[in-house]
Automatic annotation (TrEMBL), chain A:
One of its GO terms (molecular function) is ATP binding. Residues 1-237 form the ABC transporter domain. Keywords: ATP-binding, Cell inner membrane, Cell membrane, Membrane, Molybdenum, Nucleotide-binding, Translocase, Transport. This is Molybdenum ABC transporter ATP-binding protein. It comes from the Bacteria. It comes from Belnapia arida. It holds the Pfam family ABC_tran. Residues 298-364 form the Mop domain. InterPro entries: AAA+_ATPase, ABC_transporter-like_ATP-bd, ABC_transporter-like_CS, Mo/tungstate-bd_C_term_dom, ModC_ABC_ATP-bd, Molybdenum_import_ModC, Mop_domain, P-loop_NTPase.
Length: 366, 256
């Protein structure tokens, strides 16, 4: 259980944000740079003292300016992973990993029973790096060591400040699976600051959407992704609904994989790695979903889903965002304003959603 | 001012030992000249020992602290660099002389006299080289990413713990560079030493003072030349040693 409320003014910028998080799992603070998300993280860690604020983690008050309570950062037990790793250059990887472990309160070691040194080394694949110095590591390796160091400090809470933002695409892809493993193994509440939607899809359970120092919306990733009225999400090229799926079957003869979701089925080019019954999360990009008022025939697309049009929202000057319901599941489709007029699209209409392709952006367990 | 090298209170024992051990090397210089070399090393060494810790603390305060009077402290620390050394020596005489506000009580209560003693020479040298250490340490500190101390903090390290395990090791190249520079400069400190501690052979007559005395006495050119050569060799050795140590330290810190 985590409660965060922060109010702080900078020259030309005011932050006033409040949100909660029910417990273990990743809460992503998402928004453009300069929206205050890193400031919130610093306030939770205690590295910044906000003008007013209250932070409660696991029933313990870490900050309450109204009552003059502010626990020192070194006693907050918030494991922080910084964008720039911040490994100690004069210590070996092993000593870096043990830095927090050595200083963890003994009580916490016993009652929290966090993963031990060996387990973390195993979890993050650090076995070959232990004797090395941070200078000789790649960016991805450094970030993995930083993850391990934070986790070994027996934190009550993990705070990650854009841990992948300083890495190139290849390194990000290398570290992301480790992040997912850490999330599942740690069983801790994690606050994850990012401006990358694919990281949200792959890791986050809940999303806090920030803009200009305010919380625009908060909720599960699926619920927020399906809202057409959130410009911060809907304007992006990779905007789209996020849906949880189960693998229903592999059709090797036709080279297809069948996926089921609440209210329908999708067929995708075969993904042999997926076992039947596996859960995964897909992002159906709005620009990859088209709409027809009649069932099209003679078309290469596999996925033609009967749907009901719920909402039409203008998105930019020439485009509109449509929210469709397929059973209980919401999809987003981006079409031109001209199409809306030509087809007479209006809320309540029965339409067909045509899904062109499916992005498997780091589809993690849903 | 006692002037010539010949008028020395001899240190027979150490002379004998030194001569026995170093043979030809030792005979290169006279016993009095060796005294000057030894004194220079001792004075410079002590001056660094005395000023290192306060200099590190002052550098820390100047680099990281936000307190009223910070600029004034900064200026006062740098004064010995710009004020004539003789003035620094005179100031020390006023403060630490046997009737001075500090020297008086030291003499009366503890029997400690600094004027005209080796300790006094070390004090004068320490004051002169203090800004050199502060500057060097401060430069090292300002190049140190405060983010590392923040990281240590979130990992549960209190301020002393952070200072000892993160800040101090990472600023050690700056401390080393400052100490070596101060030592090398201390070997050659002239004005403040001669004013405060005078030019007493075997007591306060360091290398530069001995060279000065040699040039002032008839037929002292050869002695001055030998001592100048020693000065040169010491300075060169110091600089090379500093470079070598600096590289070692850099590697140890995971920089090089």
């Amino acid at each position: 259980m985590l409660e965060v409320a922060v109010r702080h003014r900078f020259p030309g910028f005011a932050l006033e944000a409040e949100f909660g998080s029910p417990g273990a799992g990743v809460t992503a603070l998402f928004g453009p740079s300069g929206c205050g998300k890193s400031t919130i993280l610093a306030a939770v860690a205690g590295l910044l003292r906000p003008e007013a604020g209250r932070v409660v983690a696991g029933g313990e008050v870490l900050l309450d300016t109204a009552r003059g309570v502010s626990v020192a950062p070194e006693r907050r037990r918030c494991g922080v992973v910084f964008q720039d790793a911040r490994l100690f250059p004069h210590l070996s990887v092993a000593s870096n990993l043990r830095y927090g472990l050595r200083r963890a309160p003994r009580g916490a070691t016993r009652d929290a029973e966090g993963p031990g040194f060996g387990e973390v080394v195993e979890l993050l694949g650090l076995g070959g790096l232990l004797g090395r110095r941070p200078l000789g590591l790649s960016g991805g390796e450094r970030q993995r060591v930083a993850l391990g160091r934070a986790l070994l400090a027996r934190p009550r809470l993990l705070l990650m400040d854009e841990p992948l933002a300083a890495l190139d695409a290849g390194r990000r892809a290398e570290v992301l699976p480790f992040l997912a493993r850490l999330r599942d193994a740690a069983g801790l509440p994690i606050l994850y600051v990012t401006h990358a939607l694919d990281e949200v899809d792959a890791l986050a359970d809940r999303l806090v959407l920030l803009e200009a120092g305010r919380v625009l919306a908060a909720g599960t990733v699926e619920a927020l992704a399906a809202r057409a009225d959130l410009p911060a999400l809907a304007r992006r090229r990779d905007a789209g609904a996020v849906i949880g799926c189960t693998v229903l079957g592999q059709d090797a003869a036709r080279g297809l994989t069948r996926l089921g979701f609440e209210g329908g089925e999708l067929v995708v080019a075969q993904r042999p790695g997926l076992a039947v019954g596996a859960r995964l999360r897909l992002r159906l990009r709005a620009r990859d979903v088209a709409v027809a008022t009649e069932a099209p025939r003679g078309i290469s697309m596999h996925n033609i889903l009967p749907a009901r049009l719920e909402v039409v929202v203008s998105a930019g000057e020439a485009e509109a965002m449509l929210r469709l319901r397929v059973g209980p599941t919401a999809l987003l489709a981006r079409v031109t304003r001209d199409s809306v007029g030509r087809l007479g699209l209006a809320p309540g209409m029965a339409v067909f959603a045509l899904v062109k392709s499916i992005a498997f952006d780091h589809a993690g367990p849903g | 001012m006692p002037n010539s090298i010949g008028a020395t209170a001899r240190r027979g024992d150490t002379d004998a030992e030194l001569t026995a051990i170093s043979g030809a090397w030792a005979r290169m210089l006279s016993a009095e000249e060796w005294d000057a070399v030894r004194l220079s090393l001792a004075v410079a060494g002590r001056s660094v020992l005395v000023s290192l810790l306060p200099a590190v603390l002052v550098a820390w305060a100047l680099a990281r602290g936000r307190f009223p009077g910070r600029m004034l402290l900064d200026a006062v620390v740098h004064l010995p660099l710009v004020v004539p050394p003789v003035v620094v020596g005179w100031g020390l005489l006023m403060l630490f002389g046997v009737r001075g506000p500090i020297g008086g009580p030291l003499n009366d209560w503890f029997g400690v006299r600094l004027v005209f003693t080796t300790e006094g020479a070390a004090l004068a040298t320490a004051v002169m080289s203090f800004p050199l250490i502060v500057r060097s340490v401060r430069l090292g500190l300002e190049g140190l990413d405060p983010g590392l101390e923040e990281a240590a903090r979130t990992l549960g390290a209190g301020w002393l713990d952070r200072f000892l395990t993160v800040t101090l090791p990472l600023m050690s190249p700056g401390i080393l560079a400052g100490a070596v520079t101060a030592f090398a400069a201390g070997l050659g400190e002239f004005g403040a030493v001669i004013t405060f501690a005078s030019n007493i052979p075997g007591e306060t007559q360091t290398l530069p003072l001995a060279i000065y005395s040699a040039t002032q006495s008839p037929g002292g050119e050869a002695a001055a030349g030998r001592l100048a050569l020693v000065s040169f060799a010491l300075a060169l050795t110091g600089l090379l040693l500093a470079e070598l140590l600096g590289r070692r330290l850099g590697r140890w810190l995971g920089r090089a």
